[in-house]
């Protein structure tokens, strides 16, 4: 096993000037780490220590005062000191039983110098050792990092990095990627696996974990468990360097895979056109994910605005980010680049009942990501087509996604949903607009109100819309418009004169509400 750079109280006892010593309390704490040595002769030390210091003292601060001595030891324990070494003779002749009891309870070593020793030489010796040890630790860490970087150039699987970490430190290694089983290096029996998993879930001094961040989200977790000693500071540094190297390897692997996907564009375009049979599609999916059991799928179009003005935009990275976010929600994505947009075929691996909610979550996380909010990021929006329970009908989802995109562009910011199934009236209006004269039909119902507002700068159209939304409630309408009742009554009388006194009758009212939607649809297209 590699040097772990953990200097303990027991190691101190084996050094020069500690030949004539006696451990009288806290024997179970001899494994405590020592990071520095201090000579302390005062009894109030709360603000003097940082933790892990071995304290040397003659006892002049408390002399034979048992209460002061007990208080002093309590402060050392609270400050996480490593232990206390006392010179017996000049100021301290004996250790009170209550001090020994306290030290034993907290596994806090108390060591007696049976002969006079030079404290200055002890501090010089141990400090020199610790400084040299720290220098050697940094040197070894850099050597490890260089060897790791060299391995990254040649390895074919990240498992080689895990094996290298195990050989270097000798610890049990656990690696978990989201959506996959935990990997153990070295392999062990099922009983030990369960034991290791419990230790990682409830960290102790013998276990440590480091998350791997990709795209500002946790992509995997690397853990190690020691079977014979506490995890040292050096172990944690090695773990951090290894996690960074693993993240680089996984990102590179994902990037290479994304580049490979770009070469499959033609086949995917054929899928969008409905050219492939169910079996052909399943064969294709089997080549990409053996465990995939599709529940159906849909098409999501991401359309960019002014893409040519953002030459630094990394399209491959964006596709990789989208894929990662949607995979976390149970979708396998297959992107196709098309004239300023990316079309994603999304295959659902979970319950059909929750597909829309999961899709919304994935898209929102992408929209909230640091990459999507960069200053040089082009504006973009998503359009999601109708869900297809058969993958051979993905072309129908594609057509509805195109229709959704068209409606979104027509309505600009007036539509909040990116899902085809949420557009309702907008879809009907779009269909009428495409096959008939929507403007003429709309003017047949609303022209008198429109002309009145233009001529008198009135607010009859706004009043009509709110009045219908309030189901004819005058009180609620006045409240929403922030007008007094008399003003509202006057406007309603004017609407009756322009639209007819029967404009609130069910059939006519429904037609007027529909035409108001058409009016906003056409107005948005003219902005």
- N-to-C CA distance: 72 Å
Q: How many structural units, i.e. domains?
A: 4
Q: In percent, how much strand structure appears in the residues?
A: 5-15%
The average pLDDT is 86
Structural class: alpha+beta
Layout of strands and helices, then pairs:
Layout: H1 9-13, E1 21-25, E2 36-39, E3 53-57, H2 66-78, E4 83-87, H3 97-105, E5 110-113, H4 119-152, H5 159-169, E6 172-177, E7 183-185, H6 190-201, E8 207-214, E9 217-225, H7 233-262, H8 265-272, H9 278-288, E10 297-304, H10 315-327, E11 331-338, E12 341-348, H11 355-368, E13 380-384, H12 394-411, H13 425-435, H14 438-456, H15 460-469, H16 474-481, H17 485-499, H18 506-525
Parallel strand pairs: 2-3, 3-4, 4-5
Antiparallel strand pairs: 1-5, 6-7, 6-9, 8-9, 10-12, 10-13, 11-12
Helix pairs in contact: 2-3, 4-7, 5-7, 7-10, 10-11, 13-18, 14-18, 15-16
Question: What are the key terms here?
Answer:
Udp-n-acetylmuramoylalanyl-d-glutamate--2,6- Diaminopimelate Ligase, Chain: A, domain 1, 4-stranded antiparallel β-sheet, Beta-Lactamase, alpha+beta, 527 residues, 4 domains, 5-stranded mixed β-sheet, Alpha-Beta Plaits
